[in-house]
């Protein structure tokens, strides 16, 4: 998913700015580079995960009780590798043409197929954890297939054809300059989750389960706010390419205010209905209690998610690679990981949970400062 973000966010930034500058050929070649990059890297990563599956499971903290389940699931879902990349990438790229409906439809189709097939494979066919994995693989194939068919129909000004693929003309460098920081944020999120699971496992499997569900609760707020930030990125990128700074400021101001309101409403709803949301995932009372406690801690700053994602995507739209890299490293890395161990040492298990809200606040402050400096610099060019 993080590599899909690399090509998706990096490609969106380059393509939207190229379209703003009227460079349609560059936009086409950038799109093709992203597609074949997803294919090549997806196959490579799938092979590496299969080869090193046992060390990977040990690294992420699989216990004796969960090891076989995890291995069974991962050994199947890994075959969705290239399709996961394509789905994540083109859910972003398609929006650069203003086709937000098609971008959403591709994501919805894949997830709906997954939801429909889960009970069929898990319960009706009795495949259990393997059924969940197979349903996920098929869902990702359907989602990726939708985006591929969209481009092959020839209605798009962009291209995924091999003849348009190139790493020259600064296309690969431009995509990677923005994409790598975005992907790094996702990678560090996975790394931080591995560390949390590893440390949380000292307090028992039920605490790990509770933390996993608590993360799903804040995902409701986080993913919607992330979508808002990613949705505005092509508009801001086009404004940067066309150097229409007045419109850029108007769009940014509206979006940042809307993001704060949206984040606050979503966080409030999740807080009020935490018990009901958690009960959809857990029946064990110990795990349930942990999940409710952890979720409410994490929700304390989730109302700021929208502001954070708008700031990050605005920097990516401006092609500000270094500031984007600094922010990506801070929220889940350079700030979060040290804070996690410090708070665990001071207040124990709940310190592992409070680390995220602390990192959220500090990261937003850094993002706001870097955005202000980048904005002043860009307007002088």
Outline the structure in words:
This protein is mainly α and 381 residues long. The protein is built from 16 helices and no strands. The protein has helices at 2-20, 24-51, 53-59, 67-77, 81-93, 100-124, 128-152, 171-200, 205-242, 245-272, 274-279, 285-298, 305-317, 321-334, 336-347, 349-380. α6 runs antiparallel to α7. The protein is globular and about 60 Å long.
Question: Can you give me a brief rundown of this structure?
Answer:
This protein has 381 residues and is an all-alpha fold. The chain contains 16 helices and no strands. The relative contact order is 0.12.
Summarize the helices and strands and which ones pair or pack:
Elements: H1 2-20, H2 24-51, H3 53-59, H4 67-77, H5 81-93, H6 100-124, H7 128-152, H8 171-200, H9 205-242, H10 245-272, H11 274-279, H12 285-298, H13 305-317, H14 321-334, H15 336-347, H16 349-380
Helix pairs in contact: 1-2, 1-5, 1-8, 1-9, 2-5, 3-4, 4-7, 5-6, 5-7, 6-7, 8-14, 9-10, 9-12, 9-13, 10-13, 13-16, 14-16, 15-16
């Amino acid at each position: 998913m993080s590599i899909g973000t690399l090509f998706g966010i990096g490609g969106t930034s380059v393509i939207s700015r190229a379209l703003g500058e009227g460079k349609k050929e560059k936009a086409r070649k950038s799109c093709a580079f992203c597609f074949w990059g997803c294919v090549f890297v997806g196959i490579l990563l799938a092979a590496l995960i299969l080869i090193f599956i046992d060390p990977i499971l040990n690294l992420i903290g699989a216990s004796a009780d969960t090891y076989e389940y995890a291995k069974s699931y991962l050994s199947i879902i890994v075959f969705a590798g290239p399709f996961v990349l394509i789905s994540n990438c083109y859910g972003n790229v398609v929006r650069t043409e203003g086709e937000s409906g098609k971008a959403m439809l591709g994501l919805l189709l894949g997830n709906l197929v997954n939801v429909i097939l889960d009970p069929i494979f898990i319960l009706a066919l009795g495949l259990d954890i393997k059924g969940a994995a197979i349903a996920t693989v098929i869902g990702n194939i359907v989602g990726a297939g939708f985006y591929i068919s969209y481009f092959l129909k020839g209605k798009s000004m962009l291209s995924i054809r091999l003849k348009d693929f190139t790493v020259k003309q600064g296309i690969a460098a431009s995509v990677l300059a923005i994409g790598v920081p975005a992907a790094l944020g996702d990678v560090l999120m996975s790394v931080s989750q591995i560390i949390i699971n590893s440390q949380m496992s000292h307090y028992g499997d039920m605490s790990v389960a509770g933390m996993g569900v608590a993360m799903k609760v804040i995902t409701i707020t986080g993913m919607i706010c992330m979508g808002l930030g990613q949705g505005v990125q092509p508009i801001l990128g086009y404004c940067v390419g066309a150097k229409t700074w007045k419109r850029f400021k108007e769009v940014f101001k509206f979006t940042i205010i809307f993001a704060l309101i949206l984040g606050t409403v979503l966080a409030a709803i999740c807080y009020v209905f935490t018990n009901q949301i958690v009960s959809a995932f857990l029946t064990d009372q110990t795990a349930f209690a942990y999940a409710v406690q952890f979720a409410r801690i994490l929700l304390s700053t989730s109302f700021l998610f929208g502001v954070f994602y708008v700031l990050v995507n605005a920097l990516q739209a401006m092609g500000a690679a270094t500031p984007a890299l600094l922010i990506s490293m801070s929220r889940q890395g350079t700030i979060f990981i040290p804070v996690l161990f410090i708070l665990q040492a001071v207040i124990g298990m709940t310190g592992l949970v409070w680390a995220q809200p602390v990192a959220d606040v500090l990261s937003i402050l850094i993002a706001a400062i870097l955005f202000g400096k980048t904005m002043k610099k860009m307007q002088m060019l």
